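Design request, tokens follow.
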């Protein structure tokens, strides 16, 4: 449905017109499928794919790409000069500088002639010695062929480095045999959900608000998403009572609830769970025989001293719990920000050995994770150390990115909280804010008359007026009757005031217009 918006046309600012265009496109699509002589049509395709939704890449960002194309072809034709993509945590798209050491190692691995005896003296004038040695070492892991397949679970030596990283982080042992490198954390989550779901009656508890990967994957697997609600009034902590309610209601309906997903730090909320809250979750999952899925890709994005990151693995180890745990990490977030390289891993704890064999089989079907992603994971878990040639620069770059994110998070939360009909918890972690908007009733009525979600229409109007692309709260789930949107705080710091001013002008005018209606 969303793809049909990706045609060239002038900006559509009338919501009723937009709804008619979308509805007409869907009807045309359905009619053409019925009349088509093609074997593969909407009616014959996998219905689970048809029902999937992924708001982060949905109608609003697709419309943003249309407007971006329009600005290229017709500069000055819109009331803004550029698109500001705050819909997705994609740091380098918004000019975050890549880490020098990681890129130096990658360059040397890609063009190995730089390491040949006849060129090495020149290379040493361009690259620090530790980057050269890291590239040589990493190449030795893959038989000096960075374009060749690796082991299906990933390079053994890198998995050992991941295990050491986890041990140093948590203070408890980690086994490289329980670690699988993946092409991003998303692929890891999908693989684990794939092995969990054996029938349409299987349910997985997911947080609301949640990252749409979970609902999309469960829809693809024809499984049940069982919502539990995070507490906005308590900085998005998790309520034990609501966990119990969610599980008991689902089981009363005959759903086979097998797992619980937790995102910490939170996406889209920016909340970070306290250790005692994590311990409650671990005990709950152990008691109720639930597999625990811990999405921890934002673990280094922590901006508060009151809620430090504590891994689920650490709490499981401290409690000596027998709970079955999968935890996920990625190079896409944190200060690394290498989203497009697609690198990540999962650690499996207390998982049946026969299931580990089945997970290996699933990994083998994809042959191996991409090699440059694996090498970036190695840099993330095994960065330059004090005394290394690259250490000072690496630390300066990491610190600069972190401090800038922290400033931008506070600045954007302050801006949202200064506006009428809007409130926002400060980000304790991650890359997002999830402000609540009190939409005027006249606007809610207008949106419903057009068959639109009110927060989605609000976000579309924001895009059409400012070029700022955010994601409506309905794409993540929210308490019924409330409206939110998710925005990253990734726009460059030197352009941040301009970004905030554009949003402020839109929102104030919007509230004023509809409050008078």
């Amino acid at each position: 449905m969303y793809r049909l918006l990706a045609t060239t046309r002038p900006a559509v600012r009338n919501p009723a017109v937009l709804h008619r265009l979308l509805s007409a496109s869907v009807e045309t699509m359905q009619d053409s499928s019925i009349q088509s002589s093609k074997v593969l049509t909407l009616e014959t395709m996998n219905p689970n794919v048809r029902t999937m939704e992924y708001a982060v890449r949905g109608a609003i960002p697709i419309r943003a790409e249309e407007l971006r194309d329009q600005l290229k072809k017709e500069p000055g034709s819109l009331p803004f000069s550029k698109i500001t993509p705050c819909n997705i945590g994609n740091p380098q798209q918004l000019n975050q500088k890549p880490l020098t050491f990681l890129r130096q190692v990658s360059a040397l691995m890609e063009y190995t002639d730089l390491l040949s005896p006849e060129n090495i003296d020149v290379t040493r004038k361009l690259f620090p010695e530790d980057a050269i040695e890291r590239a040589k070492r990493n190449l030795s892991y893959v038989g000096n062929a960075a374009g060749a397949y690796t082991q299906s679970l990933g390079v053994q030596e890198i998995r050992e480095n991941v295990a050491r990283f986890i041990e140093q982080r948590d203070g408890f042992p980690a086994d490289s045999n329980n670690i699988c490198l993946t092409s991003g954390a998303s692929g890891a989550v999908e693989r684990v959900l794939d092995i969990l779901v054996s029938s349409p009656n299987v349910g997985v508890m997911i947080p609301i608000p949640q990252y749409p990967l979970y609902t999309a994957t469960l829809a693809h697997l024809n499984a049940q998403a069982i919502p539990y609600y995070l507490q906005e009034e308590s900085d998005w902590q998790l309520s034990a009572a609501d966990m119990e309610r969610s599980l008991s209601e689902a089981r009363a309906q005959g759903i086979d609830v097998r797992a619980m997903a937790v995102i910490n730090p939170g996406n889209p909320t920016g909340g970070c769970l306290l250790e005692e809250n994590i311990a409650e979750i671990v005990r709950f999952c152990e008691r109720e025989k639930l597999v625990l899925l811990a999405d921890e890709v934002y673990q280094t994005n922590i901006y508060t001293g009151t809620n430090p990151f504590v891994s689920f693995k650490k709490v499981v180890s401290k409690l000596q719990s027998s709970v079955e745990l999968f935890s996920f990490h990625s190079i896409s977030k944190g200060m690394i920000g290498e989203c497009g390289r697609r690198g990540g891993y999962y650690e499996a704890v207390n998982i049946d050995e026969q299931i580990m064999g089945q997970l290996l089989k699933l990994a083998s079907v994809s042959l191996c994770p991409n090699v440059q992603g694996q090498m970036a994971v190695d840099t993330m878990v095994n960065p330059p150390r004090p005394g290394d040639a690259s250490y000072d620069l690496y630390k300066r770059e990491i610190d600069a990115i972190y401090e800038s994110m922290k400033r931008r998070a506070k600045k954007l939360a302050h801006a949202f909280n200064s506006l009428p009909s809007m409130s926002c918890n400060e980000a304790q972690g991650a890359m997002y804010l999830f402000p609540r908007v009190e939409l005027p009733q006249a606007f809610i009525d207008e949106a419903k008359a057009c068959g639109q979600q009110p927060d989605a229409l609000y976000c579309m109007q924001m895009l059409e007026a400012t070029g700022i692309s955010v994601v409506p709260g309905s794409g993540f789930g929210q308490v019924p009757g409330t409206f939110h949107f998710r925005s990253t705080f990734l726009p460059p710091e030197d352009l941040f005031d301009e970004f905030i001013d554009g949003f402020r002008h839109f929102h104030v005018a919007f509230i004023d217009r509809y409050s008078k209606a």
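Comment from the thread starter after seeing the answer: thanks! The mean pLDDT is 88.
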